[in-house]
Design a protein that fits this description.
single chain; 38% helix; Rossmann fold; globular; seven-stranded parallel beta sheet; 14 helices; six-stranded parallel beta sheet; alpha/beta; 2 domains; 392 residues
Length: 392
């Protein structure tokens, strides 16, 4: 990935803490990872006059650029020892710690140990859960219910959907649980004609887009099949896949399989594969060339999608599979009738034939964008950590 100028600036500096709130931030970092990107976008907006932050990152990250001394790599994954992380927390004695949790990052027992240690040190703890549903890992069930007593000690637990609130309440976690929105990347409207010229796309073509990592559950296979169905119905759509390779073998395998599928369906020239890990602005420029952006997910336990916010930020109509991962943006997207290729075809045709509904959707998206920039979301988190009236 090419790195933005602001991101380079962040990587090159470490600010002295002075009298500011010393914040630890546990997350993947400086890597091809959605949570690493989420962390970067939030921390870019933190007020340097109020906060001095240090990232506690994974030793397993494949780096996009050299780290600086604002980064301490002190954990590996859920199977690795947690001793180095606990020792770092003791040595640093942060004022606060934000934990970006994924079931692959830490074991539940280790997460509980981190929260308990911070409580004993007087370190304020905020845990951000990007998924809360039980999962099966190596044949064993993992449930946040198993560490509910430890999680009750956290100052704040932040989740992304009402379903998460209900689920955690079932584990006895209520008083410290709050909804916390994803943000979106602020950008002005991109001219559709200019965006198409940059990609050498015909000005009058129907362009259906997609965005996110190239993984099986994203429904890219179904999108290609739906594009073939549109062609069969006399709608010669082009499919623009702004779907970056994820650094696992399964992602490359899925890309290869989808390339073959596009060829088999006679769509070799109609499906455009953009599998590079692009800068956010370049991704938005590409998505702005689309008539509609489709998130055809087939199933996931994630609570919320960061990828869908790129489609909304591109200010193009967004269609989504009828899955709970999109429930927090239900007011500003339109749902497909199902997840099959036929459902995607029908959803695209229905949206394109509904000029009034499409314009109303775009107006709702504009209003939503006014409320949920990364800057505004970061302000919420900063006030949670250190209210302007003083530390808590």
């Amino acid at each position: 990935m090419m790195i933005t100028a602001l991101w380079k600036k962040l990587l090159q500096q470490k600010l002295p803490s002075g009298g500011r709130f010393r914040l630890g931030w546990l997350s993947t970092w400086n890597a091809k990872c959605g949570i690493a990107e989420y962390s970067k976008l939030l921390l870019e907006q933190f007020d340097p006059q109020r906060f001095a932050w240090t990232v506690l990152a994974s030793k397993n990250d494949i780096l996009l650029a050299p780290d600086t001394d604002r980064v301490i790599r002190c954990w590996t994954n859920r199977l690795g020892p947690v001793d180095s992380l606990l020792r770092t927390l003791k040595d640093e004695a942060f004022d606060g710690l934000v934990i970006q949790f994924n079931f692959g990052f830490l074991s539940l027992a280790d997460l509980g140990a981190v929260v308990s240690l911070c409580r004993s040190l007087g370190t304020k703890v905020v845990v951000v859960f990007h998924a809360t549903a039980d999962v099966d890992i190596a044949g064993q069930r993992a449930s946040l219910a198993q560490i509910a007593d430890d999680l009750a000690k956290a100052d704040h637990i932040l989740v992304h959907s009402p379903d998460d609130i209900v689920r955690l309440a079932g584990f006895g976690l209520r008083d410290n649980v709050s909804l916390f929105p994803h943000g979106y990347i602020e950008t002005g409207a991109v001219d559709r004609v200019a965006a198409r010229e940059a990609l050498a796309l015909p000005a009058d073509a129907l362009v259906v887009g997609s965005y996110g990592f190239f993984l099986p559950h994203k429904g890219i296979e179904q999108l290609i099949e739906a594009t073939a169905l549109l062609h069969a119905a006399g709608v010669p759509a082009k499919l623009l896949l702004v779907n970056a390779l994820y650094p696992i073998a399964q992602s490359q395998e899925e890309l290869d399989r989808c390339r073959r599928l596009a060829g088999d369906r006679g769509l070799g020239a109609e499906v455009i594969f953009e599998s590079r890990f692009l800068p956010n602005q370049a991704s938005l420029q590409a998505l702005a060339a689309c008539d509609v952006i489709v998130y055809a997910y087939q199933g996931t336990q994630e609570s919320s999608s960061a990828a869908v916010r790129m489609g909304i930020a591109a200010r193009r109509p967004v269609l989504c599979s009828p899955l709970s991962i999109f429930s927090d943006v239900a007011d500003v997207v339109r749902f497909l009738p199902g997840t099959r290729p036929e459902d995607i075809r029908d959803g695209v045709q229905s949206l394109l034939s509904d000029e009034v509904g499409r314009q109303a959707l775009l107006q709702r998206q504009d209003a939503w964008l006014d409320r949920y920039s990364w800057n505004r979301v970061a302000q919420l988190l900063q006030e949670m950590l250190q209210p302007r009236g003083g530390r808590v």
